[in-house]
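Please, structure for the following, as tokens.
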Amino acid sequence: MDYLNILTAEMSAITLTLKLSLVTCIFLFFIGTPISLYLAFKKNKIIPIFESLVTLPLVLPPTVIGFYLLVFFNPESVLGKFFITITGEQLAFSFSGLVFASIFYSLPFWVQPLQNSFEKIDKKILEAGTNMGGSRVDLLLKIILPSCKRGFLTAFILSFAHTIGEFGIVLMVGGNIQNKTRVLSISIYDHVEQLSYQHAHFLSIFLIFFSFFILLLLYYLNKKNSIGLK
């Protein structure tokens, strides 16, 4: 079996998978970071409810999430009509729909590690900054964000890797459209359905090693940063 030809044939799916993961992480930075800050520093009675909602994608079956996302993406829904008006295409079975779905499903993988990182910041340092006349923006830009580089790294790598490996929601929301929504996990499933086990095996091994490399990078960089902080 010519592995190079397989990779060449699947380059569209591989490229689309990496693009989806990267775009999802960019959006998660702007959406998930404020949520993490709110959960880490605000203390009130609704926080447990908010945390439960953010964490919900971890326990819900992908089919449940995918079904309701399709309902919301319906061209007759408010969101569906609005998106068609501004872009000219529908959300369901499109790359944009995959991005929306991936943001929702990967949100806990961004929020939780970043929230933990924010919560570990020494409150005395923040109090000292406030006493010296620092505004909330100053504290955020000069103390909080620089102190949580490891948290951002962990959030990025976990969200990136999780988006790469997602299957159920991607299949329901995006389908299997070549060069548009056919990501690597869908391609593997397609080869299994066609009884092309050698292709599926090679692509699965490729995905396993890629995911292992991502996690290895995470642990290595976190360990390196931990040593540097001592």
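The chain has twelve helices and no strands. The chain has a mean pLDDT of 87.
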